[in-house]
Amino acid sequence: MVLQNRVSQWATFALLLLLVADFTRSENIDAEETDRFCYPETARNTRRSCECSNVSASPWGMRAIRIDCSYKNYKASEVSELLPLYIDTLDLSWNALDSAPVFVSDSLHQLNLMHNNISHLVSGNFKQLSSLRELYLGWNSIGQVDAGAFDGLPHLQTLDLAHNNLHSLQGRLFAPLLVLSSLDLSWNRRFNETQTGVDLYTGLGVNLKLATLRLDACSLTELNLPVGAPLRELSLRRNQLQRVPSQLPPTLVRFDISDNLLEHLLPEDTVNLTQVRQLYVEDMPLLQSVAAHALINVELLETLSFQNSRKLNHLDGEAFGISTNPGSKPGALRSLSFRGTMLRSFNSSLAPVFAQLTELDLNGLPLQCDCELLWLKQLQVQTNGRCYKPSRIRGMLVTAARSDAFSCDTWPRWAYGLVVLTLIALSAAGIYLIVMGLRPHRGVTMRRKVGAGSPYARVTIEPNRQENPH
């Protein structure tokens, strides 16, 4: 019995030695592979070698390697496609890659290939990166994407294809991305050519789990989205939309429609934005007014910005549709910006809305500081707004100007002009009458009698006879 116990102990000890030896050997192999990738023979001891670091990856603190090869001017032929064990992040941005390398790794989670010269993604380009979760391909020259380019990426959650030359994408290109939650296709100026009448999700195979979609500067004139899509964030900045798309998911929380061609914001534009908390209508080149009840549907809105919409000159007093009744429930709006617009005054019916704000930006507005705007001075929040008129307080902060300076004329402005013109006419008539009264009558001839002693009497000069006797 004792002998059996000793044999068992020795067997356990031998097994532990084998495990330690195998682990040490694998660690040595891994170190060699890491050195081979990070410090290749052609770049060893130079600035072109990569920066590699060991970290503890979440959630269990497992070993992970992060490799930074940015700004090394690498070409695709100089990069090893076989990645080291335990690699978690690989950054190859700002290089000279003319194609996307076909890497091999079952542990890579993030791949950054931004700011390169990649123009073509081939089928199965990332098929051997089965654990990849984030893929950044922005700021390249990608104009052709083959069918199946994103095959083999069942765990990909973030895909960035912004700032490329995409204009004709294969049907259902993103169908293999089953858990994709963030898609950025911004600044592909010819992307509107891929719209064939069907909604974006159906045409490109986007899954219904997508939460964030960015389509900035894609020359869009319309956008069709499935109403049932649980989209949370949508950015349509700098397109050619003349109206807010009618088919928007009601689950939107953040919506950016800035730099489009809307001239008036109407109630029908916000009918599907009932859950939106952040709304951006900035840099609008043609926007002139916000109509009554245009913002009544966005009851949960917390942040609203019209910044740099330089033609905006009218905000209806009932734009928010909030009752002035003191017992009414306050809204959720906390931040409001009209910075850089042409609004000159605000109706006092907006006071309940402005009073609940923690941030109100009126910087750059040509405010008419009269009695109708006195209520704005009494707000507790700092607005940074400055008076443009009247001239006596021009340039002063609304909060710094004296209350008695916010005065209104008792007569309308046209009445003052009429009084001035009348006074000018009366003055001219008076001067004319005075001149005509002092002027002599045409039938009267002025004659003057000249006496002998008058200096105006005729004088006869006779020669001196003594000087000229002849």
Which sequence of strands runs across the widest sheet? Answer: 1-2-3-4-6-8-9-10-11-12-14-16-18-19
Largest sheet geometry: 14 strands, mixed
List the uncertain runs: 19-29, 324-328
How many β-strands, per DSSP? 21
Helix coverage percent: 10-25%
Beta percentage is 5-15%
Shape: elongated
User: What is the overall pLDDT average?
Assistant: 86
So how many helices? 5
Calculate the terminal CA-CA distance, rounded to whole Å: 194 Å
Radius of gyration: 42 Å
Which structural category fits the helices and strands?
Answer: alpha/beta
SSE ordering: HEEEEEEEEEHEEEEEEEEEHEEHEH
Defining key terms:
470 residues; alpha/beta; three-stranded parallel β-sheet; elongated
Describe the structure.
This protein is an alpha/beta fold. The protein has five helices and 21 strands. It has helices at residues 2-38, 200-204, 351-355, 374-377, 413-438; strands at residues 51-57, 62-68, 87-91, 110-112, 120-121, 134-136, 144-145, 158-160, 182-184, 212-214, 233-235, 254-256, 264-265, 278-280, 289-290, 303-305, 314-315, 335-337, 359-361, 367-368, 387-389. The strands form four sheets. The chain has a 14-stranded mixed sheet with strand order 1-2-3-4-6-8-9-10-11-12-14-16-18-19, with no helix packed on it. A three-stranded parallel sheet has the order 13-15-17, with no helix packed on it. β18, α3 (351-355) and β19 form a beta-alpha-beta unit. The radius of gyration is 42 Å and the shape is elongated. The model is unreliable at 19-29 and 324-328 (pLDDT under 50).
